[in-house]
Specification:
This protein has a 3-stranded antiparallel sheet. The chain has a single domain (2-102), classed as Nucleoside diphosphate kinase-like domain (Alpha-Beta Plaits). Helix content is 31%, strand content 16%. The protein is globular. By secondary structure, the protein is an alpha+beta fold. The chain is built from 4 helices and 3 strands. The mean pLDDT is 89. The protein binds adenosine-3',5'-cyclic-monophosphate.
Length: 107
């Protein structure tokens, strides 16, 4: 059993701090703060990998048919959803938005 963190974009500068020196940082933050977003914790076996499979590759233009990014995103910048890229990242990202008390314990 595993948890992953997911954002239905757009949403945050602090959250994407790891990308602060990248050339697309400004555009990324502008998009992520251009409207409301929904943040969620998804739980299940291999949640990180399964969510990434559902999302499709980062660039919506290259995402496989039927994936969320292919269906609802526009390009690499406006790609509809975010998902953690590994268990450690998931832990950090879940903790960025949720307190332990808000989460039922993992089975
Ligand atoms: P996400 O999975 O939320 O993680 C970081 C985001 O930065 C990514 O989705 C993209 O939206 C964005 N991103 C990553 N690489 C690029 C790039 N080369 N150009 C523009 N945006 C990018």
């Amino acid at each position: 059993m595993e948890r992953t963190f997911s954002i239905i974009k757009p949403d945050a500068e602090g959250f994407y701090y790891v990308h602060r020196d990248r050339p697309f940082f400004g555009d990324l933050v502008r998009f992520m703060t251009s409207g409301p977003c929904i943040v969620q914790v998804l739980e299940g076996e291999n949640a990180v990998a399964r969510n990434r499979e559902l999302m499709g590759t980062t660039d919506s233009k290259k995402a496989a048919a039927g994936t969320i990014r292919q269906k609802h995103g526009t390009d690499i910048e406006k790609n509809a959803v975010h998902g953690s890229d590994g268990p450690d990242t998931a832990k950090f990202e879940i903790g960025y938005f949720f307190s332990g008390a808000e989460l039922a314990s993992l089975k």
